[in-house]
């Protein structure tokens, strides 16, 4: 059974209400559940629940949860047990968010770091089209050399690496032949990690250039005709060429220009869609 206990009951006339000069206590006979003191404080021994509370809370003291065991500027997270934890590896000083141990994980494809607060180009004829860095990747790829689209009987060591930053792919490759096989025709390399952007150079089949910066045992290219180079057209295929000074134009490299022990190291970059 609950009781209402009070001392010094006071009854006053006029505009003053009937009240208790020393407060009121409500609770079971074995203890106090709720106390209303004369200054207007409400003290409860249990949990206060309500659909809503009125007021801005400016006069509340002692409300809320205390966070212990954390240091200044740690970001607070909530665990599955509804406990708050200060993250020692994640701090925010009001200006900079710092990750001292771990990675920033972009959890949705196509999202990334937005640089729209920067000052875009104002150069004549130039226009900004995107300011979101939404892709970074690095890895290996396997270059596959072919002659005229085939590589029958070819034996080679073929390795490559690449790094993609946004829409730009940088790549390197090393191909060392031990037997060029029996296929014949234009020298190409397949296997680039991404397809080239089809509109990279409008109105041209040339989409990106390839630089051969080491070559060994190349046959039948006279010194006055320059060294070999390459280009990427549609799709992930490199076509290799050389400058032919006899007709003042470029010509495709073919299997006849390579020896069984030819070795190439080349690199390039291109845009993806």
Give the uncertain stretches in residue-range form.
none
Distance between the termini: 77 Å
- Counting helices, strands and paired strands, the structural category is mainly beta
Look at the structure and give the mean pLDDT: 79
Strand tally is 21
Task: Please trace the helix and strand order, writing H or E for each element.
Answer: EEEEEEEEEEEEEEEEEEEEE
Major beta sheet summary: 10 strands, antiparallel
Describe the structure.
Among the domains are: 2-44, no CATH class; 137-271. The model has no long low-confidence stretch (mean pLDDT 79). It has strands at residues 2-6, 9-10, 19-20, 24-28, 34-36, 42-44, 74-78, 84-92, 97-99, 113-114, 132-133, 136-141, 144-147, 155-165, 168-179, 187-190, 208-218, 228-232, 237-244, 249-252, 258-271. The protein has no helices and 21 strands. With 273 residues, it is mainly beta. 0% of the residues lie in helices and 44% in strands. It is elongated. Strands 12, 13, 14, 15, 16, 17, 18, 19, 20 and 21 form a ten-stranded antiparallel β-sheet that branches. β14 (155-165) and β15 form a beta hairpin. The protein starts with a strand and ends with a strand.
Note the topology.
Elements: E1 2-6, E2 9-10, E3 19-20, E4 24-28, E5 34-36, E6 42-44, E7 74-78, E8 84-92, E9 97-99, E10 113-114, E11 132-133, E12 136-141, E13 144-147, E14 155-165, E15 168-179, E16 187-190, E17 208-218, E18 228-232, E19 237-244, E20 249-252, E21 258-271
Antiparallel strand pairs: 1-4, 2-3, 4-5, 5-6, 7-8, 8-9, 10-11, 12-14, 13-16, 14-15, 15-21, 16-19, 17-18, 17-21, 18-19, 19-20
């Amino acid at each position: 059974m609950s009781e209402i206990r009070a001392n010094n009951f006071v009854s006053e006339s006029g505009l003053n209400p009937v009240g208790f000069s020393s407060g009121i206590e409500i609770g079971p006979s074995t203890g106090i559940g709720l106390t209303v003191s004369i200054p207007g404080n409400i003290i409860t021994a249990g949990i206060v629940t309500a659909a809503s509370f009125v007021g801005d809370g400016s006069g509340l003291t002692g409300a809320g949860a205390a966070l212990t065991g954390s240091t200044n500027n740690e970001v607070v997270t909530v665990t599955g047990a509804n406990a708050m934890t200060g993250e020692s590896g994640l701090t925010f000083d009001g200006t900079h968010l710092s990750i001292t141990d771990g990675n920033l994980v972009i959890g949705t494809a196509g999202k990334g770091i937005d640089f729209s607060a920067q000052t875009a180009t104002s150069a004549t004829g130039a226009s900004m089209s995107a300011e979101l860095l939404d892709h970074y990747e690095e890895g290996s790829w396997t270059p596959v050399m072919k002659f005229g689209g085939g590589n029958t009987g070819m034996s080679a060591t073929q390795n490559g690496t690449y790094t993609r930053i946004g829409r730009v792919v940088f790549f390197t490759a090393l191909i060392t032949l031990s037997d060029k096989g029996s296929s014949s025709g234009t020298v190409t390399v397949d296997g680039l990690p991404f397809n080239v952007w089809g509109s990279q150079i409008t109105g041209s089949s040339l989409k990106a250039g390839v630089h051969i910066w080491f070559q060994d045992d190349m046959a039948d290219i006279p010194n006055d005709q320059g060294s070999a180079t390459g280009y990427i057209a549609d799709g992930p295929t490199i076509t290799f060429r050389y400058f032919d000074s006899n007709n003042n134009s470029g010509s495709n490299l073919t299997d006849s220009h390579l020896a069984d022990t030819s070795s190439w190291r080349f690199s390039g970059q291109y845009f993806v869609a």
